Amino acid sequence: MTDGYHHGNLRAAVLKRAAEVIEEEGPHSFSLRSLAADLGVSHTAPRHHFGSREGVLNAIATEGFLILAERLRDNREAGGDFLETGVEYVRFAVDHPAHFQVMFTPTLLNARDPELAAARTAAFDELVTGADTVAEAAGDEPAAVVGGWSIVHGIATLALTGNLDSSGVRSLFGDADLIDITRRSAGLLFASPSPRE
After folding, report:
1. Where are the domains of the chain?
2. How far is CA 38 from CA 18, 33, 47, 132, in A?
3. 85 and 127 in contact (C-beta within 8 Å)?
4. Quick check: 123 and 116 in contact, CB under 8 A?
5. Is 148 within 8 Å of 190 (Cβ atoms)?
6. How confident is the chain (197 residues) per 10-residue block, as mean pLDDT?
7. What is the CATH number that goes with domain 1-51?
8. Alpha-carbon distance 175 to 191, whole Å?
9. Which fold does the domain 66-189 belong to in CATH?
10. 14 close to 31: Cβ distance less than 8 angstroms
């Protein structure tokens, strides 16, 4: 069996297919063999790029942290404040739900992977940028970081798991979309809630 992929394209194809499976069925629903079958390549082909199933998950998490870091950096460079950093965090989660799930499930990952560690650090360095402006009133920047992250991570998780809708809480916001809900909810912590329409 020939893989039909140029060297390097198979790696991207495996990551894309793994993310699709994770989004549909969860992170435990694939093997390297099943990914190879889905892509029509030899069952050993993905192993050349990732070594193991954990290698695929590490690569997905690394890719996710890099995408998140880039989005947060773009927000900062465009003049976005700490609240908008949180909004971008939620946007990322909604746009990349499989990545988000894997990134924050440590039992799936090899924490000693240097690429994963570097990507995670890059994302968190961006996440804390701007927290100093929020912390001025309270005088506690670490608490502002944890509080802000907790709110937006919680909103993203509630949305992705369907709990925001199934609980009926989302209906309290009327026709507001998830970004508006994030701005209003996180804005309470940041003492700058956006006005209701």
Report:
1. 1-51, 66-189
2. 10, 9, 15, 48
3. yes
4. no
5. yes
6. 59 94 93 92 90 95 98 94 93 98 96 95 90 72 88 96 91 90 87 45
7. 1.10.10.60
8. 23
9. Tetracycline Repressor; domain 2 (1.10.357)
10. no
